[in-house]
From TrEMBL, chain A:
Protein name as catalogued: DUF742 domain-containing protein
Superkingdom as given in the UniProt entry: Bacteria
A Pfam family assignment: DUF742
InterPro entries on file: DUF742
From TrEMBL, chain B:
Protein name, per record: histidine kinase
Species of the source: Streptomyces griseomycini
EC number assigned by the record: 2.7.13.3
Gene3D superfamilies: Histidine kinase-like ATPase, C-terminal domain (3.30.565.10)
Gene Ontology biological-process entries: phosphorelay signal transduction system
Family annotation (PANTHER family): SENSOR HISTIDINE KINASE TRCS, SENSOR HISTIDINE KINASE YKOH
Amino acid sequence: MTTPGEEASVTSDFVRSYVITGGRSLPSSDDLALHTLVTLAPERTLPLGAGPEVRAIWDLCAGGYLSVAEVAGHLGLPVGVARLLLTDLFEQGHLLRRAEPPRAQNVDRATLEKVLNGLQSLIG
Amino acid sequence: MTSLIRDPLLWVLLVVLVAAVFAVMRARRTNLALRRTKNDLETGLGQAQGRIVQLQEHIASLNARHKDDLADVRADAESSTKAVLKSAMGTLQSLAEEQQLLLDGLLKKYGDDAEVLADLMSVDHTGSQFSRRAKGISVLCGGWLGRREGAATVYDVARSAQGRIKDFDRVSIHAQVSVSVSSKAVEPMAVVLAELLDNATTYSAPGTPVEVNIQAVPTGVCFIVDDAGLGMDQETKDRAAALLSADGPVDITGLGDPPHFGFAVCGMLAARYGFAVSVGSVSPYGGVRAVIRVPESLLSADGPAPAEPARESEGQQTAPQRLAPVPVGPSHVVGKTSGGLPKRRRRQGPIAVVPPPDPAPGIDEQTSESAGEVTASRLGAFARGTQLGRTTNTTEGPDHQ
């Protein structure tokens, strides 16, 4: 008989992801895109019976805005699973979200040259 | 005298006398012969009886030898069957583990696609059930189960067990305690609980709930599995009790066809790792109540595995590692410039990571996790910083984005 000390180590995820979702269907990526930013709404208390993953999200998002992809990465969960948990919290009003910040507009070269000239005349 | 001689009666008497003498002598001879025969026969009988006893002894010894030989042959057959099965199951276990590792990667790789993810999850679910079967048979044949590297909370052990059965969505878990099971007992506990959950879901009507309650008791922790089935009859209870308390190898050929491995696996692992499993009582729903009693020696004082940290207990310690509170938002806007732009006051405090004033000794073990948190906080701070410089509206609720 093999003694426990001789056992090979098992490294696959102990709690499988379909158990974390409870077998529920997953939200599509339109609801919370990878780069959507989420944070904890102020004055919220952790829902009763929150699982370890929800508690981890709570702690992660308390610090400020994080993208959905980052939350999933920190939890070590597939994005879809993290998205489901985030959607739950969002629907319960615990989370705030914000779309990806718009890209900075390119300023035309003439304006930049004017600024440069202005600065040079100020300094030099 | 002459008249006497001539008397015929005398002659008759004489003849009779002679005949009588002959008869007596003959009878005496016959008697003697018969006695001799009787003695001979009695001696023969004694000998025969002695022979019978001898033969009976011989038969008994032959029977005993036959029985021993048969037992030896059976034991040989059983052990060679087990050896073959153990090796075959070992291969299947390795493959199942390999597949689960592969799926861990695939689930993360295709995590953004809800449809692919759902399909991968159903493959993963089938794989987990397959893995449990292989592990059960392997355990009965004296094989390995695989060892988890870290301790896991009782809640995670229950969830892991839940994931290994078919109707996992009927199971609900209520953990009244948040202790961890030590690493060596993590996998066996999960396998045993999975077998009990499999029984509970198989022998109760589809759609009825199966509950796992995890409670602290003076000697450790109990996992209580309640189903709403019909319960077990006395014969099944006796059989289960015998298998659950078996302290030694289990005869795998005696488990029926199709074989019922569940209780045998539970009994085997309970004996090997030192916890107790019982299925004798009735659940509040009228079905079976199965209880795993885990002694304190199998519970861990270490924190839970880093993947799912129990945050409440360490909240106070990690708090100083977080970012210093930074006032954000409209409070900085002190007015408007003549051009209509918001006029801001210089921020009160810099965004900075404040080191813990007095690092607790336990924090070192969680460096990786803390580093992750710090990174997360920094990113959060970065996001806050960018927020300050923008006029994008913060929205709440699902209505707008």
